[in-house]
Design a protein that fits this description.
Elements (H helix, E strand, L loop, with lengths): L5 H19 L9 E5 L1 H9 L8 E2 L11 E5 L5 H6 L5 E6 L5 E6 L9 H13 L6 E5 L2 H6 L8 H9 L3 H6 L4 E4 L7 H11 L4 E4 L3 E6 L2 H23 L9 H10 L3
The structure holds Dihydroxyacetone (2HA) and zinc ion.
The site of zinc ion has 7 residues, from loops.
């Protein structure tokens, strides 16, 4: 009985908590953002036997590293504020087929997954293929970071990473691999997914021009914290600019000292 599965319930409660933060932060206007979390370890035995509650849907490529995996995925067109209050009315569990070519919704309501699902699954599949212990893909629309993505100056991985790192020490510590940058692509397309995957080779977080940000990781709350810290840095930079000066930023030596102190 999945209702009584405490490990799954805890994971869903964390997703609901994060969805609420995305809304409160003002990062989830309309149906903005989407979340997928690999919950296979929590539900493995139970879910392999469950009867699908909707038709099979083919995947754009074979997801060889996600065979029989189960994901909680937010629904297409759904609002984060309602994912927060009613996760099972605004998202569902899907199970990837044994051959990795299609998926089926298995629980709890036939809520169709986000339009970004093929791209999320491609990322999950890629990260597993290179041995990264990834469970989460979280995409959202932080106002301050998107504002920065409207300037060519910040659409450079080193430039945006170094500027954000230099605003507060936490940022250097919590995002040691910095940000990857993807030039504008149409939302929901495999072009956007493939360009993102290219950046995930060297980063855990990817900045999408004039659109938003995507974080990958083991834990959904940690993914939120990473984006929250980047957003804080962006706010400090923009607040200083609005006050009429360019912030100094921490020096290179101050940043390097963090690498030593925190073994980054
Ligand atoms: O789900 O944010 O990028 C709505 C979006 C698409
Ligand atoms: Zn988006």
């Amino acid at each position: 009985m999945l209702e009584k599965n405490e490990v799954l319930n805890t994971e869903i409660a964390k997703i609901a908590e994060v969805a609420g933060y995305l809304w409160i932060k003002g990062w989830a206007e309309y149906n903005g953002g989407n979340i997928s979390v690999n919950v296979t370890p929590a539900v493995e035995d139970e879910c392999q036997k469950m009867t699908p509650i909707a038709d099979k849907i083919s995947l754009p490529a074979v997801m060889g590293h996600l065979k029989d995996n189960v994901f909680y995925v937010t629904g297409t067109g759904k609002r984060m504020r309602y994912v927060s209050s009613s996760p099972w009315e605004n998202g569902s569990l899907i199970r990837i087929s044994h051959d990795g070519t299609y998926y089926e919704i298995i629980y709890k309501n036939p809520i169709r997954p986000t339009s970004e699902l093929p791209s999320h699954l491609s990322m999950h599949n890629y990260l597993r293929s290179i041995g990264r212990k990834n469970n989460v893909v979280l995409h959202t629309h932080p106002t301050d970071l998107i504002a920065l993505s409207h300037s060519q100056k910040w659409l450079d991985s080193d430039a945006i990473t170094n500027m954000l790192w230099s605003m507060i020490p936490e940022c250097r510590i919590i995002t040691p691999k910095g940000l990857g940058v993807v030039p504008y692509e149409i939302p929901g397309t495999m072009d956007l997914a493939n360009a993102t995957i290219e950046q995930l080779k060297n980063h855990d977080i990817v900045f999408w021009e004039k659109h938003g940000i995507l974080a990958t990781g083991i834990d959904v709350v940690d993914c939120f914290d990473v984006i929250d810290t980047l957003s804080k840095s962006a706010q400090i930079y923009l607040n200083a600019r609005m006050a009429g000066f360019t912030p100094e930023g921490m020096t290179e030596t101050q940043l390097d000292d963090l690498v030593t102190a925190f073994h980054l």
